[in-house]
Write a structure and sequence with these properties.
Length: 407
């Protein structure tokens, strides 16, 4: 259903509900006019009794006329009083009722617009699981994902380094089983952004090691495969993740990307089950911590789990005085203080440099503040700065994905 049609239906139903309830409230309950109705009934009985007395000959007509006039006057007065009381109470009741109904309908629409998914059909648990299974089955192949991956600017390497890479590539053609050379080739191809070539070298490394391949070898293959696919976790990457976890169930890289895979196919519950303990067990400088911290609250909300992100104690932040001052600030002043702290981090990294985790934190912080252009500039600078270190490059790439700058 198109959005405009959905909201048109909501508006029509809301108006109908308000009209029906308003009509119901317009009717006066019997108890509100019971006293007035009794008076009217008595006076009408008196008029009928006068007519009966005249008919029996016990009441002269002149006297009957006088009595009729008096009783009729009382009847009119009683009716006027009853109408005034009933209309006042009914008006107040009707106004209050309409206000309550209108507020309820408005609140319901606002709540649905905030927490609901306009335009989507109901998705009970069984349907959601079926949808996730279908999304999992419909993932593109690695070749398809690589063909669709957005083109990225190549890393500008030093000419001398480029010559060494050419020699290394040629050497590996004649020595396909050289474990040390293949590892060096895979790391440097990844640092240059040549993820497809890095994947080929890493596959050769694992084949050369045979049963001696360790969890980190498979985790590195999975990461390179994911980067080559533009961030999508295909069946090829999943197999590498499974191999890494079979070799070491505690491998952080494999656990992070396994959670990301479930998020991509619509299973945030399984993502949270993997990421939450990983976040608790990891040091703050682990490359997967910044992207998890940037995404886990949204994952928990999507999974219907109440979760509050714990503070990162070892990351630089405001002192106790600043925290106390922030409690009395207006939202605008508090936002300005946060922006100032981000600015201090930016200035420190520009003048003194810092580890990849600080650059990753700056990228995600700028994105949260809505400074997308600056975040993109910092991302490009950090990518060039850490291109020669695959672990740091992966952390920067993960921050770019979390900030929505890399798809």
């Amino acid at each position: 259903m198109q959005d405009w049609l959905f909201w048109a239906a909501v508006a029509a139903i809301s108006v109908a509900v308000v009209a029906l309830l308003s009509q119901a409230m317009r009717r006066s309950p019997a108890e509100d006019t019971s006293a007035g109705s009794a008076d009217l009934h008595i006076y009408r009985d008196q008029l009928r009794e006068i007519d009966r007395d005249v008919a029996r000959g016990t009441l002269p007509e002149p006297e009957a006329a006088r009595l009729r006039t008096e009783v009729s006057r009382r009847l009119l007065d009683a009716d006027r009083v009853a109408q005034a009381k009933g209309s006042g109470a009914q008006g107040r009741r009707h106004g209050l009722g309409v206000a309550v109904v209108a507020a309820s309908v408005t609140g319901a629409v606002w709540l649905y617009a905030t927490l609901g998914a306009p335009g989507y059909p109901d998705l009970p648990l069984k349907s959601r699981l079926a949808f996730a299974e279908q999304a999992y089955a419909d993932r593109p192949t690695q070749a398809e994902a690589e063909a669709r991956a957005p083109l990225r600017e190549p890393v500008q390497a030093d000419p001398a380094f480029g010559e060494l890479m050419d020699k290394l590539r040629q050497a590996m053609i004649s020595r396909p089983g050289d474990v040390q050379g293949l590892g060096l080739l895979a790391r440097n191809e990844a640092a240059l952004g040549n993820y497809v070539a890095a994947k080929t070298a890493q596959l050769g490394l694992i084949a050369a090691k045979g049963t001696g391949a360790v969890a980190e070898d498979h985790a590195s293959l999975a990461e390179i495969t994911i980067l080559a696919a533009g961030g999508l976790i295909t069946d090829d990457a999943e197999r590498a993740l499974v191999a890494a976890l079979q070799a070491d169930p505690n491998n952080g890289t494999a656990r992070y990307y396994s959670g990301l895979m479930f998020a991509q196919v619509g299973r945030p519950d399984r993502t949270f089950a993997l990421w939450q303990p990983l976040l608790e067990e990891s040091n703050a400088d682990a490359p997967w911590v910044p992207p998890i911290r940037a995404q886990i609250e949204g994952v928990a909300q999507a999974a219907g789990i109440k979760f509050q992100l714990p503070p990162a104690d070892d990351l630089p932040g405001p002192d106790a005085d600043a925290v106390a001052a922030a409690a009395d600030m207006t939202p605008e002043d508090r936002q300005a203080m946060i922006a100032g702290m981000v600015g201090q981090l930016s200035d420190r990294l520009a003048s003194q440099g810092g580890p990849a985790r600080d650059w990753a934190r700056l990228i995600t912080s700028l994105a949260v503040l809505g400074e997308t252009a600056r975040a993109a500039e910092v991302l490009a600078e950090a990518e060039a700065l850490f291109a020669a270190t695959p672990e740091d490059a992966a952390a920067i790439n993960a921050a770019g994905i979390a900030a929505g700058l890399i798809r």
